[in-house]
Amino acid sequence: MVSIDDSERPAARRARPVAARRGGKAKETAGSRERILDVAASLFRRRGYKSTTVRDIAEDVGILSGSLFYHFRSKEEILLEIMRAASILNCREAARIVGRPADPMTQLRELIELEITFTIGERNRDFQTVLYDEWREVPETAKPEFLAFRRTYRDFWRQVLNACHAGGRLRCDPHAAELIIHASIIGMIRWYEPAGPFGLDEFGGILASLVAAD
């Protein structure tokens, strides 16, 4: 299982300012890095990774293009850090739900609500959409890390779904239930409108009812 504590990641794998790595005088400002990642995630979601340039990101952040490279070596490194942040958050919050004593169906509803909130909610939507949509842009050397995150996250879901199934609480096979739930939530990225007839908090119960035994 991968580490889901960002502070535990090896220093070599944390994105740090290039100038700092080269012994330069510039020091990383956490707020600047976060701003760059937030802006880049929004641009990648709306325009796509390939259609977004470093200049686009720098302009929206309000800095010169060259200044961005004090924080990240490349646009690719920005992409990987966005995907890493989303992956760590997913695993950490799923672990919190599964680690708390509760009825398996309650845990399942909480996991569904968590994924809906992360995928569609305004606060995390950009990061999560990039995580799902830009997988093809991840270099082969980086894919094992993200596949490990994905396995860890899915293992939390399977633990809960298997417990529900063992208790006769599912109307279908746990794997089928997992596919139904995740496909439904991913599809919401394309069609969900906040002004629509259903709120995000309602969809957790709706999706749970699709797989729950009567």
The H-and-E topology, N to C, reads as HHHHHHHHHH
Radius of gyration over C-alpha positions, nearest whole angstrom:
19 Å
Reported by name, the CATH topology of the largest domain is Tetracycline Repressor, domain 2
Largest sheet: none
Overall body shape: elongated
Distance between the termini: 35 Å
- CATH homology superfamily of the largest domain: Tetracycline Repressor, domain 2
CATH level 1 name of the largest domain: Mainly Alpha
Helix fraction, binned, reads 55-70%
Average pLDDT taken over every residue: 85
- How many domains would you count in the coordinates? 2
Quickly give the CATH architecture of the largest domain.
Answer: Orthogonal Bundle
Number of helices: 10
Given helix and strand content, the structural type is mainly alpha
Organism: Phreatobacter stygius
Domain HTH tetR-type: 30-90
GO molecular function: DNA-binding transcription factor activity; transcription cis-regulatory region binding
Keywords: DNA-binding, Repressor, Transcription, Transcription regulation
Structure, described:
It comes from Phreatobacter stygius. With 214 residues, this protein is mainly alpha-helical. It folds into two domains: 24-72, Homeodomain-like (Arc Repressor Mutant, subunit A), CATH 1.10.10; 74-211, Tetracycline Repressor, domain 2 (Orthogonal Bundle). It contains ten helices and no strands. Mean pLDDT is 85; it is low at 7-28.
